[in-house]
Write a structure and sequence with these properties.
With 362 residues, the chain is α+β, with helices and mostly antiparallel strands. The chain has a single domain, classed as Orthogonal Bundle (Cytochrome p450), CATH 1.10.630. 51% of the residues lie in helices and 7% in strands. The protein has 14 helices and nine strands. Strand 5 (259-261) and strand 6 form a beta hairpin. Helix 2 (42-48) packs parallel to helix 8 (146-169), helix 6 packs antiparallel against helix 10 (187-217) and helix 11 (220-228) crosses helix 14. The protein is globular, with a radius of gyration of 20 Å. The N and C termini lie far apart (45 Å). The relative contact order is 0.19.
């Protein structure tokens, strides 16, 4: 494929090849070696300057950061969070019901739930949500200028740095306090890690909740199945993750040395874009892949990636969605779009796919 800067690289669309690339240590996430499929390299290069932003680090540096966090995102730990997530979800639905229709599901439901959850987990005051949500959008917008990205990043890092200082002075029962007390990372590294978790922790799940609901509203038989049988929640979440694959521009890797994948030699220095969306619709791995089927057994999708960079917060995202979708449909069994589907604007210029707004009624 031809990249925006003229580099000629590779596009991986098959499920098996995607897994092979993402699991192979001979591929790197080093931003200095990557070429963007869309937009400029500015965000990658700026984020590479942030200590603790370990998405763009390879082992052993990546391992050093991830080791500090793994225990916070286990299935067991997420299970303990379920009652609080259920309460947050119920509170948002109460607010929607009291305000009455129509409502923007993004602002009233999909965005607040993961934002509140990740704020509590990290120890970030939710009162600052407008600030970090606004800055996150700028950083993820492929149309943002370098100056806009730099301003958003500097402001968000400054905000998180103040919070780290506060937790150093007054520790609590939260993730940032735990990182401070562990004394394994520097202040700037903790700031970068916290910033990464804050942005990733609300952007991805918020867009899945909104886009998933939009998709269900356009597939009424599937919506009715989930509404009438909440036991489908787990398989429904996995199928929506597969079907939608909101990380729609990558993953992106570069070969550190010549690598052969399925008979093709990828030369050292060449960039590879792994289309997670295409891999999740690979007919060689999924039967009838373009059909949404909430009863589809098993998982095997790559919506959370694969290999050492597989999404750290995937279990948290799953819990939020397993609780969120059925609760929404139970509370509002007559949920419907308040505008024609073609008027729902999608986030086509954003690094994370979704909808900007989702007007609904009931």
């Amino acid at each position: 494929m031809l990249y925006t800067d003229g580099h000629v690289g590779w596009l991986v669309t098959g499920h098996a090849a995607a897994r092979a690339v993402l699991a192979d240590h001979r591929f790197t996430t080093d931003p200095s070696m990557l070429h963007p499929p869309i937009g400029e390299r500015v965000t990658q290069e700026l984020l590479a300057e942030v200590p603790g932003f370990f998405l763009q680090a390879d082992p052993p540096e990546h391992t050093r950061f991830r080791r500090q966090l793994t225990g916070q995102f286990t299935v067991h730990h997420m299970k303990r969070l379920e009652p609080r997530i259920e309460q947050i979800t119920s509170d948002r639905l109460d607010a929607m019901e009291q305000a009455g229709p129509p409502a923007d599901l993004v602002e009233e439901f999909a965005l607040p739930i993961p934002s509140l959850v990740i704020c509590e987990l990290l120890g970030v005051p939710y009162s600052g949500h407008h600030r970090f949500q606004r800055r996150s959008r700028v950083m993820l917008d492929l149309d943002s200028t370098p100056e806009q990205v730099r301003e958003a990043l500097d402001d968000l890092m400054g905000y998180m740095r103040e919070l780290v200082d506060h937790r150093r002075a007054e520790p609590g029962d939260d993730l940032i306090s735990g990182l401070v007390s562990a004394r394994q990372l520097t202040k700037e590294e903790i700031t970068g890690v916290a910033m990464l978790l804050l942005v990733a922790g609300h952007e991805t799940t918020a867009n899945m909740l909104a886009l998933g609901t939009f998709t269900l509203l356009r597939n009424p038989a599937q919506l009715a199945a989930l509404r009438d049988d909440p036991s489908l929640a787990s398989t429904a979440v996995e199928e929506l993750l597969r079907y939608l694959t909101i990380v729609h521009l990558g993953a992106i890797r570069a070969a550190k040395e010549d690598v052969e994948i399925e008979g093709q030699v990828i030369k050292a220095g060449e960039t590879v874009t792994v289309s997670l969306a295409a891999a999740n619709r690979d007919p060689g791995h999924f039967e009838d892949p373009d059909t949404l089927d909430l009863t589809r057994p098993g998982t095997g999708h790559l919506a959370f990636g694969h290999g050492v960079h597989q999404c750290l917060g995937q279990q948290l995202a799953r819990v939020e969605m397993r609780i969120g979708y059925p609760a929404l449909l139970r509370r509002f069994p007559g949920l419907r779009l308040a505008v024609p589907p073609e008027e729902v604007a999608t986030r086509s210029t954003m690094a994370i796919y979704g909808v900007h707004r989702l007007p609904v009624a009931w």
